[in-house]
Structures are given as structure tokens and as C-alpha cells.
């Protein structure tokens, strides 16, 4: 008997053509650029804006070793150590590895799946070789399957997974920058406390000298006991302030230990001089440097991933075409399994089209659109927040510099007033209260000057963090 070759019928081709036409309609909505934040040409605190421009993504640009600008070897070592050993960075790196593994899984879904299979089955029935008598069927072979991505669903899922991995990578960079900035700021806080502690203890020694002199005068009958009590009270109160600064330094030292990945009991930062350089951010820094901020890049990648997932949710309504094939051997006897006469093969294709699912797919599309809207708002909020952070630090640096100049003048005047009051008190021209007031004012002004200096360092590191790294990168 001869076999006739029948051409493919039109009824077979129509579902495939319809699937391809519908797949072309599965496209996610475009990003509304009017809903996104524009980047000003310059920051308000640095220069007058000369126009508006949209910042292109630049998260791949180098951020530089910005901490080297402070010219402090101890701080450099701590920042680099935190970048290698901090547990928060290690956790973010693990999340990035997880996202990349999910991306490889999404890419694998688009490739043919091939595997070996084998088995043995004991059965009885009308379809077996021995009728109703039990028989054993042994099989071994190779199976393959491949889902033809007609609607682009798998491609969109792969794209979304890729963008998720990009977002995780940007978040890792953001975490690393945040940890480095926290390490630098904690170190600078420690050094400023060291300077303040030295100042307060210097004042305590001055009070102690005054107390000794007052006690001698009291024993000689030159002053009343009230003078001794007053100076002893001032010395005790100042000593209490010094101990409070010691407690605060211990807390900062413990925090720094965690940042660099050490146990608090095993970490010690010796008291040192505060000779860290204060770098100056040049005027006219363009606002486009914010495009390389890793958190902004992460928000942008999340937005694009949400956009891709809308297309993947829409594609769930379109037909799925799966191709399958297998080849191997099947035999009732294990010894005959690899005989040429026991060979078997099959090829198949399955085209499925969803008709009714109770609204589950529509709900998936609505959920994807809601996530896209949330990601759009989140991206805009991230950009606006980045601009606010930079403007805050720029205005803070400007005002702190002006305040420091005024405060330095106050320190000079207060120091001179203390010196004159001490001389006049020793000569009996002013009372002890005048001397104590002068010293109290001098200490307050000198501590405020140190705190303003520390605030300028903190604001500089904060600005570098807000800019996403070194402004020269």
C-alpha cells in the first residue's frame, strides 16, 4: 500500500497565523516622560540654573576613591576595610547573585530542554502483549521539548529578570557607597570627639589650678568658703561633661567596629590628632552627576522591569506552542532493550489558547500595571529626593563656612576675656564669679567651634554620598 503526501491544510495553519498576529499586539505601555523628573542644569546652591535637561543614565561611570581627598591614612584604611568586610555589603552581594541566578533560569526557559529517561512498568490489561496476564515494559531513551515563544512572553520575562539583576547591582553599589560614607563619617565623629575631649579635660585642669589657688587663699583667710565651693562645682560639672564624651566615643568606636566587620570587643581606634584635610567641592558641579547615583539607577531599572512584566502578563492571553520529541527503546525483556527491533520514537506539537480563566489573567495584567505605576512614582521620588539631598548639603556647607568664620572670632574674643579676667581676679580687681563666667563662655565657644568644624566634615561626606561619589569621576 502506498502513502500519499497530503499538503498542510488551511485549518492547521490558521491557528498558527492567528497566534503570530496576536503576539505582535503584546507590547507594554511606554514610559510617560512627562511623569518623570527632569534634571536642572546646575544646583541652586552652586550656580544659577541656565536651563533644564534630562540626565542620561550613567551608573557605569567610576565613582572614584573619594575618601583619598581627605588625606587621612587611618580613614583610608578603615573605608577600604569596610568595603571588603562589611556584612551589609556582603548581604547585598548575595542578593545580586540570587538575581543573576534567576536571570539564568529565565534564559534557560527559552532554550530546548533535553534529558535522558528510563523506567520499568509492570502492567496487565487488554492493551498488553500477553492480554490480561501481567507484563513488564522496560524503556530507555532521550526526550526533548521546546516552547516556541510566539507571543514573546519568555523574552519579556527574561528582560524583566535582566533588569532586576541590574537593579540589584546598582543597589549593591548604593550599599557600598553608603557603608563607605558611614565609615568615614563615624571616623570623623570620633576624631572630633577626641579634640573636644582634649579641650574639656584642658579646662578641667585649668579649674583644678584655680581650685588649688582658691583653697590656699581660703586657708589664709583671704576668701570665703563659698569661693572654694563654686570652683569645685564648676570642676565637677566639667569633669562630668568629659565622662559623657568618653561614653559617646566608646559608642562610636563600637559602631565603627561593626562597619568594618569586626566584633566591638576586638576593635580599638587609638586616640589621635584631628589633622584630616577638608576637601572643597568646586563651584558649578553639573546636576547630571546624579545620573550615576546607584539608587537612582536601581529605581530606573525597577521601572523598566515593571514595564516588561506588563508585556509578559499580556502575553499570557496568547497561544502557547510546544514542540516535543523522544527517541529510544521499549521492550518487555531487559535483555532485548537495546535491540534494533525495540526502537521507538515520537514527535509532537501542542498549541493551546486560553479562552476563560475567571479573570485570573486580567487580574495579572492589572497587578503588573499597578506595579508599573508604583515604580514610575518611586523613580520620580528617588530623583527628586536626590536633588534635595544635594541642595541640603550644598546649603549646609555654605552656611557652616560662614558660621565658622563668625565663631572663630567669638573664640578669639572669649579667650582674651578669660585671660584678662584671670589676671584681674589674681590682682583682686574682679570677683571669682566674673572669672568663672569668662571660662564658661570660652569653653562653650571653643566647643561650638569644634562642633561646627565637625559638621563641615560631615556635610562634605554627605555631599559626596548625595552626588554618588567623587565629583571628578
UniProtKB/TrEMBL annotation:
Q: Pfam families from the entry?
A: OEP
Signal peptide stretch:
1-23
Q: Which GO terms describe its molecular function?
A: efflux transmembrane transporter activity
Q: Where is this chain's protein located in or outside the cell? A: Cell membrane
Domain of life, per UniProt, equals Bacteria
InterPro entries associated with the record: MdtP/NodT-like (IPR010131), OMP_efflux (IPR003423)
Q: Name one GO cellular component term.
A: plasma membrane
Annotated keywords: Lipoprotein, Membrane, Palmitate, Signal, Transmembrane, Transmembrane beta strand
Membrane topology classification:
Lipid-anchor
**Per the annotation, which location comes first and is thus the protein's main one?**
membrane
Record's PROSITE patterns? PROKAR_LIPOPROTEIN
Question: What family is this?
Answer: Belongs to the outer membrane factor (OMF) (TC 1.B.17) family.
Q: Under what name is this protein listed? A: Efflux transporter outer membrane subunit
Q: Per the UniProt entry, what species is this protein from, by scientific name?
A: Xylophilus rhododendri
Ranked from the top, the taxonomy reads: Bacteria, Pseudomonadati, Pseudomonadota, Betaproteobacteria, Burkholderiales
Amino acid at each position: 500500500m502506498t502513502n500519499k503526501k497530503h499538503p498542510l491544510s488551511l485549518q492547521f495553519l490558521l491557528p498558527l497565523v492567528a497566534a503570530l498576529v496576536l503576539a505582535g499586539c503584546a507590547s507594554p505601555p511606554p514610559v510617560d516622560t512627562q511623569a518623570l523628573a527632569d534634571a536642572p542644569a546646575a544646583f541652586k546652591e552652586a550656580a544659577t540654573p541656565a536651563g533644564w535637561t534630562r540626565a542620561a543614565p550613567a551608573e557605569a561611570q567610576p565613582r572614584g576613591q573619594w575618601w583619598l581627598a581627605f588625606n587621612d591614612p587611618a580613614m583610608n584604611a578603615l573605608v577600604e576595610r569596610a568595603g571588603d568586610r562589611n556584612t551589609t555589603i556582603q548581604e547585598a552581594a548575595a542578593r545580586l547573585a540570587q538575581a543573576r541566578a534567576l536571570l539564568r533560569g529565565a534564559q534557560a526557559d527559552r532554550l530546548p530542554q533535553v534529558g535522558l529517561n528510563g523506567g520499568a512498568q509492570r502492567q496487565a490489561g487488554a492493551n498488553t502483549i500477553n492480554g490480561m496476564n501481567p507484563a513488564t515494559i522496560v524503556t530507555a531513551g532521550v526526550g526533548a521539548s521546546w516552547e516556541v515563544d510566539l507571543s514573546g512572553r519568555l523574552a519579556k520575562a527574561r528582560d524583566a529578570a535582566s533588569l532586576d539583576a541590574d537593579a540589584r547591582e546598582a543597589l549593591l553599589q548604593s550599599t557600598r557607597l553608603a557603608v563607605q560614607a558611614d565609615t568615614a563619617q563615624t571616623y570623623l565623629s570620633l576624631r572630633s570627639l577626641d579634640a573636644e575631649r582634649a579641650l574639656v579635660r584642658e579646662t578641667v585642669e585649668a579649674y583644678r589650678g584655680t581650685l588649688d589657688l582658691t583653697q590656699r587663699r581660703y586657708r589664709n583667710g583671704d576668701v570665703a568658703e563659698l569661693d572654694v565651693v563654686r570652683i569645685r562645682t564648676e570642676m565637677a560639672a566639667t569633669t562630668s561633661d568629659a565622662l559623657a564624651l568618653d561614653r559617646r566615643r566608646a559608642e562610636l568606636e563600637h559602631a565603627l567596629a561593626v562597619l568594618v566587620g569586626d566584633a566591638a570587643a576586638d576593635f580599638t581606634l587609638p586616640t589621635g590628632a584631628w589633622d584630616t584635610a577638608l576637601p572643597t567641592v568646586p563651584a558649578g558641579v553639573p546636576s547630571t552627576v546624579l545620573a550615576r547615583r546607584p539608587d537612582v539607577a536601581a529605581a530606573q531599572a525597577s521601572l523598566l522591569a515593571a514595564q516588561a512584566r506588563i508585556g509578559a502578563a499580556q502575553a499570557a492571553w496568547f497561544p502557547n506552542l510546544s514542540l516535543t520529541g523522544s527517541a529510544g527503546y521499549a521492550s518487555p525483556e531487559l535483555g532485548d532493550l537495546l535491540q534494533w527491533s525495540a526502537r521507538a520514537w515520537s514527535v509532537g506539537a501542542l498549541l493551546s489558547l486560553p479562552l476563560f480563566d475567571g479573570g485570573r489573567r486580567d487580574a495579572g495584567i492589572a497587578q503588573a500595571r499597578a506595579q508599573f505605576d508604583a515604580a514610575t512614582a518611586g523613580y520620580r521620588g528617588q530623583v527628586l529626593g536626590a536633588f534635595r539631598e544635594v541642595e541640603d548639603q550644598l546649603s549646609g556647607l555654605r552656611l557652616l563656612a560662614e558660621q565658622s568664620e563668625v565663631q572663630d572670632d567669638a573664640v578669639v574674643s572669649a579667650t582674651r576675656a578669660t585671660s584678662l579676667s584671670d589676671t584681674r581676679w589674681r590682682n583682686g580687681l574682679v570677683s571669682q564669679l566674673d572669672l568663672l563666667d569668662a571660662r564658661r563662655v570660652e569653653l562653650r565657644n571653643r566647643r561650638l567651634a569644634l562642633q561646627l568644624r565637625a559638621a563641615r566634615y560631615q556635610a562634605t561626606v554627605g555631599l559626596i554620598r548625595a552626588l554618588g561619589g567623587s565629583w571628578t569621576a
